[in-house]
């Protein structure tokens, strides 16, 4: 009763309307700590003439986890090309959570980069690949159109700075233990170097697991909404790494589009069971094709276009 009466009091309700309700980010932060990433200037991140992250487009970035072999990356790239996807992802350099997880798995490093280069020339797909260390950056930049800074390196400031100075488009992934404030702080470091071709990626955070290893992280949809309110740079979503579990990826992708994300990262593999890392996570080609059909329908509802 007490609460209801209080709510009837107009002033009380007025006081509830916080001018800056976005979680842990204060107006002081916006003014002094993260002024560039929160500036109101409209974003357009143009990778090339066909790939523009804008308010209207939702590019899908797809591919296997690692560039495990030349054969694999060609097979995936040719499939994606046929589906009209424009951005291929695959990592030749890859951090692993557990060093012993797969004895078979080795980063293909410079060979992997050469295969990416070949497949890029053959398919004309744009390439996203992860930068784990500064010493690989020169080679990666010869091939990559977009540099990915993975979760584990979100706050590796020297790496951020060096990547920013290449003037390539950068995908900065949120660390799974980082607040939004931490992530926007990291993004600010990139902008301060004069590179504003920046894309932020929500990829799941650590939270109590709902189904043990099949839901390793929790996709923070609310963070997408919050970032869309706070910043004008593209915010993309990675439901594959969040759920770690292929059957859940489509629903999380749809929810991300509904939350107004500006792109998706979706892992796909011709035979997920054979993926040397995280075999529960990639969609097979049929699942990917279905996801694409449904993503297009959902994007249309929100007046956006999957590219
Ligand atoms: C990845 O994109 O393959 C990856 C390892 O992602 P994250 O850094 O988000 O774990
Ligand atoms: Mn991966």
Structural overview:
The chain has about 300 residues and is an alpha/beta fold. The protein contains 12 helices and 12 strands. The chain has helices at about 1-10, 10-15, 25-35, 70-80, 110-125, 135-145, 155-165, 180-190, 220-230, 240-245, 250-260, 285-300, and strands spanning about 45, 50-55, 55-60, 60-65, 85-90, 125-130, 145-150, 170-175, 200, 235, 265, 305. The strands form 3 sheets. An 8-stranded parallel sheet has the order 10-9-8-7-6-5-4-11. Strands 1-2 form a two-stranded antiparallel ribbon. It has a two-stranded parallel sheet with strand order 3-12. Strand 4, helix 4 (about 70-80) and strand 5 (about 85-90) form a beta-alpha-beta unit. It is globular and about 50 Å long.
Short description:
With 307 residues, the protein is of the alpha/beta class. It has helices at 2-8, 10-16, 27-33, 70-82, 109-123, 137-143, 157-165, 180-192, 221-230, 239-243, 249-258, 285-301, and strands spanning 45-46, 52-53, 57-58, 60-63, 87-89, 126-130, 146-149, 169-173, 198-202, 235-237, 264-267, 305-306.
């Amino acid at each position: 009763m007490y609460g209801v009466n209080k709510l009837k009091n107009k002033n009380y309700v007025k006081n509830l309307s916080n001018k800056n309700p976005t979680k842990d980010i204060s107006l002081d932060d916006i003014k002094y700590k993260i002024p560039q990433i929160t500036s109101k200037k409209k974003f357009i991140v143009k990778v090339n003439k066909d790939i523009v992250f804008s308010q209207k487009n939702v590019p899908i970035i797809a591919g296997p986890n690692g560039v495990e072999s030349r054969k694999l990356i060609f097979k995936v790239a040719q499939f994606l090309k046929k589906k009209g996807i424009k951005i291929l992802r695959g990592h030749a350099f890859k951090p692993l959570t557990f060093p012993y997880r797969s004895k078979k798995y080795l980063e293909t490093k410079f060979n992997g980069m050469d295969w990416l280069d070949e497949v890029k020339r053959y398919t004309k797909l744009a390439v996203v690949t992860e930068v784990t260390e500064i010493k690989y950056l020169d080679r990666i930049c010869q091939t990559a159109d977009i540099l990915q800074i993975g979760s584990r390196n979100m706050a590796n400031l020297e790496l951020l700075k060096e990547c920013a100075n290449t003037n390539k488009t950068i995908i900065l992934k949120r660390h799974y233990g980082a607040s939004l404030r931490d992530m926007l702080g990291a993004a600010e470091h990139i902008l301060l170097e004069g590179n504003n071709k920046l894309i932020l990626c929500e990829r799941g955070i650590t939270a109590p697991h709902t189904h043990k290893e099949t839901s390793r992280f929790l996709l923070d949809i609310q963070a997408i909404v919050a970032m869309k309110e706070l910043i004008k740079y593209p915010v993309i979503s990675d439901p594959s790494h969040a759920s770690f579990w292929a059957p859940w990826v489509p629903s999380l992708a749809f929810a991300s589009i509904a939350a107004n994300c500006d792109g998706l990262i979706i892992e796909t593999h011709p035979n997920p069971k054979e993926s040397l890392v995280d075999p529960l996570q990639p969609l097979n080609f049929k699942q990917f094709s279905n996801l694409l059909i449904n993503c297009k329908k959902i994007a249309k509802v929100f007046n956006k276009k999957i590219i």
